[in-house]
Amino acid sequence: MHKFSIRVFGCQMNSYDGDRLRTALLHQKWEEVPDGEADVVILVTCSIREKAEQKVASEIGRYDAVYKRKKSPAVALVGCMAQRIGREMAKKFSCVRLVSGPRHLGLVPQAVTEISSGTQPRFFMDDDPRALLDLEVAPTARTNPFKAYVTITYGCDRFCSYCIVPYVRGRLQSRAADDILKETRTLIDGGVKEITLLGQNVDAYGKDLNDGYGFASLLRDAANQPGLTRLRFATSHPKDFDGDILEVMRERPDICRAINLPVQSGSDRILREMNRGYTSGQYLALVDKIRGALPDVSLTTDLIVGFPGETDEDFRASYDLLREVKFDIVHTAAYSPREGTRAAMMDGQIDNRVKAARLNEINALQSQIARTANEEYVGAEFEILADGLAPRGEGKIQGRTMTDKVVIIPGCEEDFGKIIPVRITRASHWSLEGERI
Ligand code: SAH
Ligand code: SF4
Ligand code: F3S
């Protein structure tokens, strides 16, 4: 077998894992092809909400129908969903020949060469949430040549009551700073302009190593590498975010002025039930502190509606918090019960229609906030890193500002990877249009 296809679902960590798997397979002289021509389709999967899993399950069903007739393509199911329900999937679908949890990726490139229809499917499960057999390869074969992700911590120990991540990604483990910096060096030497350091809670970086070297130190060392144009990070946790990070950001203008600080709810009662470890008052005080230190910062957040027991009043508190903070972007989601988490067993599960109505209401508010904020940018000047064609419109490209806003300008592929000064000419609720200065 020599032909593979790779499909990534879920978060940025999965993009990183997918890019590393691609790189490893290309090193093995495998050829990447569209999935219709592949011998092996690798699915890098997510379990965060039920819908994320249903989508992949129906894709596997589609591959299975073909596999039954042609004994191809074999499916390698990796990532969070593989860890959660990979065994079930392999029982149900004969095309699933390999299942690997996110902490066993290191075994996948060799194992896919051994997939054959005669043998039993192979399983590399993260049954021990501390075991780790990672893929020691920098993601040099990426979908985006100018931007790369680098994971700095595996797993998560916070156990928010709604969240499946600690169960599928295992315990917190920080990567050695030397390994991270070696990897970022390789990427920069290969032409990468922008690196995003990834962790479920980047502020937890180093807390398991206890050597005094935490996220702020890593951020400073990563930013100091010559040749790097932009450095980003995600995700920050309101409980663990500390002032040292703001200090490093103020020192280094090449660290992007964009912080994703998930609030999840504006109600103190719900925040307590979620086990988030802060109140809305503490969250708002942190927002003030961040905006005080970095006046041009862009703040984004994640918010869940319809958590068990959420009353109209609790929901109103989330609504009001959004109105007060005026985030640049809010990633909203209707609560989805995840088997085995504490919230899934709570009383007061909310009706789907109520969740949908709350989601609509909050999304309508946020698009209004975003539109008003974006309109204020008309006439402003930014530098964007151009990195792709605009989704619509001939002869247009897109890039992002330091604050992670998308700006669309006239241009062509030759502009990709360049920093371009622009002036904003038009705004909508999700993007800005501009002209070159
Ligand atoms: N580590 C990050 C988020 C990881 S999951 C943090 O601490 O915020 C990404 C987002 O998915 C979360 O911020 C949350 O808003 C959403 N999410 C997680 N579990 C969910 C669930 N069971 N139902 C709905 N949304 C969920
Ligand atoms: Fe999930 Fe909470 Fe960990 Fe984020 S911090 S990954 S929401 S358990
Ligand atoms: Fe999904 Fe796993 Fe990321 S559950 S959001 S792919 S950590």
Structure keywords:
437 residues; alpha/beta; 6-stranded parallel sheet; 12 helices; binds S-adenosyl-L-homocysteine; binds iron/sulfur cluster; binds FE3-S4 cluster; tRNA-2-methylthio-N(6)-dimethylallyladenosine(37) synthase activity; EC 2.8.4.3; iron; tRNA-2-methylthio-N(6)-dimethylallyladenosine synthase; metal-binding
Secondary structure: elements and pairs:
Blueprint lengths: L2 E6 L3 H16 L3 E2 L7 E6 L4 H21 L3 E6 H13 L3 E5 L7 H5 L9 E3 L22 E5 L1 E2 L10 H5 L3 E2 L2 H13 L4 E5 L16 H9 L6 E5 L8 H9 L6 E3 L7 H7 L5 H14 L4 E8 L6 H14 L3 E6 L17 H24 L5 E9 L6 E5 L5 E5 L8 E9 L4 E5 L1
Parallel strand pairs: 1-2, 1-3, 3-4, 4-5, 5-6, 7-10, 10-11, 12-13, 13-14, 17-19
Antiparallel strand pairs: 8-9, 15-16, 15-18, 16-17, 18-19
Helix pairs in contact: 7-8, 11-12
Bound molecules: S-adenosyl-L-homocysteine, iron/sulfur cluster (SF4) and FE3-S4 cluster.
The site of S-adenosyl-L-homocysteine has 17 residues, from strand 13.
